[in-house]
């Protein structure tokens, strides 16, 4: 009986880790991809339509690479750090580019 309880706890832990990675890949990747569109759009303010279109095309590649990175990193805590670091750095970059473009 005891080995069955331990086995189910290990399976539940593994399922929880996979759920965390799926949520990070889906929602964190979506936010990173959207911020990359803003970065590309703000980098080229003269051709805003072309830059936005190029940013949207690039965002699919960014999202794919982000999902691959989330599932290839061994430790789940490192994936959380990757997601938060990417969101923070892209958010700061968007803020700086907005200020730089308005002056």
How do you describe this structure in short?
By secondary structure, this protein is an all-alpha fold.
Descriptive tags:
single chain, 103 residues, mainly alpha, elongated
Topology:
Blueprint: H1 2-43, H2 48-72, H3 76-102
Helix pairs in contact: 1-2, 1-3
Task: Tell me what the structure shows.
- The chain is mainly alpha-helical.
- The protein has three helices and no strands.
- Helix 1 runs parallel beside helix 3.
- It is elongated.
- The relative contact order is 0.14.
Radius of gyration: 18 Å
Number of strands: 0
Principal-axes shape call: elongated
Write down the overall mean pLDDT.
89
């Amino acid at each position: 009986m005891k080995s069955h309880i331990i086995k189910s706890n290990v399976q539940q832990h593994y399922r929880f880790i996979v759920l965390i990675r799926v949520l990070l890949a889906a929602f964190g990747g979506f936010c990173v991809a959207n911020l990359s569109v803003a970065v590309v759009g703000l980098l080229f303010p003269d051709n805003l339509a072309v830059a936005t279109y190029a940013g949207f095309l690039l965002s699919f590649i960014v999202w794919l690479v982000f999902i691959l990175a989330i599932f290839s990193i061994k430790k789940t805590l490192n994936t959380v750090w990757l997601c938060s670091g990417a969101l923070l750095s892209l958010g700061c970059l968007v803020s700086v580019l907005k200020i730089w473009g308005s002056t």
